[in-house]
Design goal:
The chain is mainly beta. A hairpin with a 4-residue loop joins β1 and β2.
Length: 108
């Protein structure tokens, strides 16, 4: 059986970025930190895991610091995702992006 990582089609970036996940169905939003990130999805750890469910639609924001992007301020990437897995042992949520990360909305 393949692990979660071996099934990925995109290269993972093992960087920690601040992130928020909003689940409109549950009217809930959490703050977290990326544990890994790719063009197709992310695993975001958080101390607080509300009543999110697998297959919930989500809106994710990733906050990329100036050191990473070369910009003068934090770059915010925003896009849609689907909750693929809730991992209580690792205190996090696996997301699959609805569009590639490079297609996310960009703002500062």
């Amino acid at each position: 059986m393949q692990s979660h990582f071996e099934r990925r089609n995109n290269t993972r970036l093992l960087k920690k970025f601040q992130a928020t996940i909003k689940i409109p169905r549950a009217d809930a939003e959490i703050d977290g930190v990326t544990e890994n990130l790719s063009q197709g999805g992310a695993f975001i750890s958080s101390r607080y895991l509300p009543s999110f469910r697998e297959n919930d639609e989500a809106i994710v924001q990733l906050f990329l610091p100036p050191k990473m992007t070369g910009q003068q301020s934090t770059l915010i990437l925003k896009g849609g995702a689907v909750v693929k897995r809730i991992d209580k042992e690792r205190s996090g949520i696996a997301l699959q992006f609805q569009k590639a990360l490079k297609a996310f909305e960009v703002s500062m």
